[in-house]
Design goal:
The structure is a single chain. With 359 residues, the chain is an all-alpha fold. Helix content is 66%, strand content 0%.
């Protein structure tokens, strides 16, 4: 791997990170728009001619969460401030907007699906338990908070570990990203069983690998453009092929989406490749469109919160009027993304918006 100019300079905003953050945010909207056309516990109840095309159109979107996590690892690791100051800053910035938006969604459900005031109270009270109002995309916040809790633990090791040691950990983690496919043949491996939730490689699994991968890129450089393109194309084709192969063989969405697991090997490869490719774009964002990208990046956390309301709204407006998924998905995605941005931009002008909006 070659060193790149992607390593940030003091007090200088990294435009490549802004591009990655906006791309990830857009892909989140794209994925949730797409889910409107296939997400159903029983696939046979919602199968249609557009399903094979969805496999082609949606197989890139699962890199969105890995990109967000890699950006966090790139920026936060290793810890260079007092631990209490770090937790106060990060948890305040994440938790206050999270609670506010959970309350907003609880109110939204009172208006749109007829929840009672008692349902509203129960939904708000459920926030410390899981998902707040049971709105699916809120899972990301719990995971992110868990990674923040690891920062003081990982940082001392990262400050003294060698490149080979870090590669060793990432290598074991890379193997664990193959487990979704290994489990298709061996449901329980390496000590997995119902009475043992922490088998042999449990502590190497999950999003912590992306967290460390973001730091690895900052410290040792990204992949070359050629290598990134080869990995991206190969992993994307593999993802599509698995989706098409399983489309006629499984009846449950959870089984069909095995190739779209965030911590699957093919998704990890695509995320690594895309992060590397964007890091090598020479554009510095020093024009009007670049400044807009940076603005959207700064509002992306709030856009993430509000976008699902816009997904539901745009699907209700135009979802049935556009006849083909190759029109429905890009048109509705663009509408939901831009309207989410517009709403957040307006709200960001209100007093103390950064505190409760998450912008």
């Amino acid at each position: 791997m070659n060193q790149t100019s992607f390593i940030p300079k003091e007090n200088k905003r990294e435009f490549a990170l802004d591009l990655l953050r906006v791309l990830a945010c857009f892909l989140v909207v794209w994925q949730h728009i797409t889910e409107c056309y296939y997400i159903n516990p029983d696939l046979t109840a919602q199968s249609h001619d557009g399903m094979p095309l969805i496999g082609w159109m949606n197989s890139m979107t699962p890199i969105e969460v890995p990109l967000f996590v890699m950006i966090s690892g790139y920026l936060l690791l290793p810890l260079k401030m007092d631990i209490s100051a770090f937790f106060k800053r990060r948890f305040t910035r994440i938790l206050i907007p999270f609670v506010v938006w959970c309350v907003i969604y609880a109110g939204y459900y009172m208006v749109t699906r007829g929840d009672t005031f008692l349902d509203f109270v129960r939904n708000v009270a459920h926030i410390p338990v899981n998902f707040g109002v049971e709105i699916g995309h809120m899972w990301f916040i719990y995971m992110l908070l868990g990674l923040y809790m690891l920062v003081p633990i990982l940082s001392p090791w990262l400050q003294q570990c060698s490149k080979r040691q870090l590669q060793g950990y990432l290598g074991v983690w890379a193997f664990t990203t193959c487990l979704p496919y290994i489990h298709l043949w061996f449901p329980e491996v390496l000590g997995e069983c119902f009475w043992n939730p922490t088998p042999m490689l449990h502590y190497f699994t999950g999003f912590v690998g992306y967290f460390l991968l973001g730091y690895y890129i900052k410290r040792y450089g990204a992949l070359s453009t050629r290598t990134s393109l080869l990995i991206l194309i190969g992993a994307y084709c593999f993802t599509v092929a698995i989706f098409q192969y399983r489309l006629g063989k499984v009846t449950m969405v959870a089984d069909l989406e095995v190739c779209w697991r965030f911590c699957g090997v093919n998704i990890a490869m695509m995320a690594y490749a895309v992060f590397s490719l964007v890091s090598r774009i020479p554009w510095k964002g020093n024009n009007a469109f670049g400044r807009w990208i940076s603005q959207v990046s700064g509002l992306s956390y709030a856009i993430y919160f509000v976008h699902l309301i816009m997904v539901f709204t745009w699907h209700g407006w135009l979802g049935e009027s556009l006849k083909h998924v190759y029109l429905q998905i890009p048109v509705l995605t663009m509408g939901a993304f831009l309207s989410s941005y517009a709403i957040v931009w307006v709200l960001s002008k209100l007093p103390k918006a950064k505190v409760w909006l998450g912008s």
